[in-house]
Amino acid sequence: MNTKQIDRKNVLVTGGAGFIGSHLCDRLVLQANVICVDNFITSTEKNIDHLLQNPNFEFINHDIVKPLDFSKFPELDRFKVRFQGVQEIYHLACPISKRHFDDFKIATALTNSIGVKNVLDLAVEHNAKVLFASSGVLYGRRADHAPVKETDDCRLDHLNSRGAYDEGKRFAEALMETFGEVYGLDVKIARIFRTYGPRMKIHDGNLIPDMMLAALDNETIILQGDEEARITLCYVSDIVDGLIRLLAMPIDVNLLNLGSDFEVRLVSLAQKIAEITNSSSHIRFEKPDAYQFEAPLPDISRAKDILGWTPLVRLEEGLKKMIDYMRSQRQQIG
């Protein structure tokens, strides 16, 4: 890192036009110069339209599977990247589509390998702190339903139909740790559990948006599982707060769970959504697909103790905010 005094640090966010990434850019641009990299493979420009005229924000349309050379982008000159470098990197880029996962399998595998390597090469070049957005799915299926800690083993079938994502995230973690050990990089890994909020993709097989759309249209709310199925939900602003706090930690803090440790019955969630939307929708249960499983309950005691972090947005408050967003999206689409 350049040791000279700087007015605003330069921060790179890959996948910055995605659901969580765009909210992260919203927060970071208040205090830093933000370089948002995305190729819109599963994200959308609408998520960052409001930032494009901000003098502290710059968007680069780029596939992170290809090396990123800042010198080829003269629009970054105002951030003095050639002299000041980049101080922090948040690596969130990864194709994600529930409904069209098969269309992006190769891109997912490459992003979780070559893409991570390219990001780490940048971190080495600039001696930047780097955070990787991993996933709670790494803990796999667990029969005991006990909250999972960061020290628990990962249980994955790397050859299943979702291996490009699940095993890809695990390999990416290993790559992060390896670069950290070899180059002395300050690397952070956030294992993120189910997150919800505005800008989630709709019509893409995502549980919460699908439930809300059905309720708004007074159609049947379809739940995969039974009446005892439970999930955890963490509002996106809380996750963003956790990511920023984690990257600010000393080098010896490198892996934390981020999510809600409060479980809610899926049927109760559907009923609450129907209540908020004043919907006449009925609820129907279906058998879940064989490859689908809900990540276990996260133990977030380390995040609470080390970061002073805990989810603050109450479920009903978060649902109301997201439903307002869903209403606006329906009006634009319809």
Topology (elements, then pairings):
Elements: E1 10-14, H1 19-28, E2 33-38, E3 57-61, H2 81-84, E4 88-91, H3 105-126, E5 129-135, H4 163-183, E6 187-192, E7 195-196, H5 207-216, E8 221-224, E9 230-232, E10 234-235, H6 236-247, E11 255-258, E12 263-265, H7 266-276, E13 283-286, H8 301-307, H9 315-333
Parallel strand pairs: 1-2, 1-4, 2-3, 4-5, 5-6, 6-11, 7-10, 8-13
Antiparallel strand pairs: 9-12
Strand arrangement across the biggest beta sheet: 3-2-1-4-5-6-11
- The N- and C-terminal alpha carbons lie at a distance of 49 Å
Query: How many strand units?
Result: 13
Q: Overall 3D geometry? A: globular
The pLDDT mean sits at 92
Q: From the alpha carbons, calculate the radius of gyration and give it in angstroms.
A: 20 Å
In terms of DSSP E residues, the strand content is 15-25%
* CATH class assignment of the domain at 10-199 and 233-261: Alpha Beta
- Oligomeric state of this protein: single chain
Overall CATH architecture of the domain at 10-199 and 233-261:
3-Layer(aba) Sandwich
Share of helix, binned: 25-40%
CATH-assigned fold name of the domain at 10-199 and 233-261 = Rossmann fold
Largest sheet: 7 strands, parallel
**SSE order, as H and E?**
EHEEHEHEHEEHEEEHEEHEHH
Which runs of at least 5 residues are low in confidence (pLDDT < 50)?
none
Q: What do we call the CATH homologous superfamily of the domain at 10-199 and 233-261?
A: NAD(P)-binding Rossmann-like Domain
Number of helices: 9
What structural category arises from helix and sheet content? alpha/beta
